[in-house]
Amino acid sequence: MTIQKISFDDVIMLNRVTLRGVGILKFPGFKKSSSKIIQGFLIALMMANALYLMISMSYVLIFSNHEMTTLLSTMAPLMSITSGSSRYLLAVYNKVLIERILEVNKQVWNCATKQQDYETLKNYGLRARALTAMLFGSASLTVVFFLATPILAITNEPMDFYSNSTGNFALRRALPLPSPFETFSSPYYELAYVAQGIATCYLGVAVSTVDALSTVLVIHGCAQFKLLNNRLLGIVRQDLQSASNYYGHDQRARFFKTSFRFHRSILEYCYTLEAVVSISNLISVLTCMCAISFCAVNIVRGGADLLKFLGLFMVFIMQMLFVCWPADYLSSESTNIAFAFYNCSWYNYEKSIGSSIQIAIARSQNPVALTAGKFVIMSLETFTSILSSAMSFFAVLKSI
User: Please, are residues 231 and 108 in contact by the beta-carbon 8 Å criterion?
Assistant: First the structure.
């Protein structure tokens, strides 16, 4: 009997909509050729926005006469955009694997016919949806800070980098991000502001989509381990409550064979997930560690851009937390399976089942680990190390 009240597609609706909106997932109801054209257009649009922002800031950075103020204020946004667009391209490259992983989750969700199994998957699915909402909310708030900062930063000062046509004092109107062109006069300022606003919004959606996808896939991996753990603990409780000997019973043999297959499928899921997120995690670790330091320096210095860098600082911290914490949780859930198998009274079953349980125990004693390019295991300990390194780099920058 089917007891599901909401489907897997409903749980990840926000993720699916945004993944299609940035060209990673196919559009349903379209022909294959039409869907590819739409995806290609969306990918090209996103990369055009990213290149526009990166080229503009790189130009300002190169021709700023190596001014420390310009360097510090430009590096954090530039690293954020470069890192985000790189992770987006990796997601586009791995879109076939992403679709396969989502399909596996959907199959697990559809096979949960018992109320307890459904509630387990539902609880983890709602957690993943809440984390997705938090990521998009923080990204939206940061974009608002970016767009609002120039309005609050309008001052009457002589232009210190570009000279206007008259060479006189002019109203200096800032843009959300550095621009290589003189856009202080209307309508060039308004056009540049709108262009940067649109590019920043679309890039923010794309990067948040990729970050949220990684978190959601890891959380659903945790749900699968928890589902298997609950099933094994249910067998343990039945054994404790019953005095009968289940040795050689066909029902238990079928249960354990199904559990072994499910365990192997979860491990394959995690290996595929590692292939998808490994390089992306490495990019996040390297850029966030440096960008957090640049943001902290700008926050300490204060000024008109304080709000903008405060938002960026918050996003970088949250990004690393949502990369490290779910990965740490996944490792913990994977090792719990060893205890669950061990408590199943494996010594009371026939030799083939007992041997298979021992193999499953040995396999589960090596925790599943998501890494950053195979160099660093993502965990809460790694998160604290990243923050510690970022603060050390911040101390160096602050002393310059």
Answer: no
Q: How far apart are CA 121 and CA 229, in angstroms?
A: 12
The pLDDT tens digits of the residues spanning 110-133 come to 888 888 888 889 999 999 999 999
Distance, C-alpha 328 to centroid of its chain: 14
> Is 56:81 a contact under the CB 8 Å cutoff?
no
Q: What is the pTM of this model?
A: 0.86
Look up residue 328 and give its two tokens: 């740490």
Instruction: Measure the CA–CA gap between 111 and 130, rounded to whole angstroms.
Output: 24
CA dihedral in degrees (354, 357, 362, 367; nearest 10)?
-170
- Is 372:282 a contact under the CB 8 Å cutoff? yes
pLDDT in tens, 326-345: 999 999 999 988 888 887 77
pLDDT of residue 102: 92
Which amino acid appears at position 396 of this protein? V
C-alpha 294/C-alpha 286 separation (Å) is 13
Lookup result for tokens 């990796």 = 90
140 — pLDDT class (breaks 50, 70, 90): confident
| Total residue count of the chain as it appears in this document | 400
Q: Quick one: which of 84, 80, 113 has its CA closest to 289?
A: 80
pLDDT in tens, 269-283: 999 999 999 999 999
Q: Judge whether 82 and 290 are in contact, CB under 8 Å.
A: no
**pLDDT-derived band of residue 156, with 50, 70 and 90 as boundaries?**
very low
With beta carbons less than 8 A apart as the criterion, state whether 294 and 397 touch.
Answer: yes
* Residue from 323, 5, 49 nearest 203 by CA: 49
Q: For residue 217, what are its two tokens?
A: 């896939």
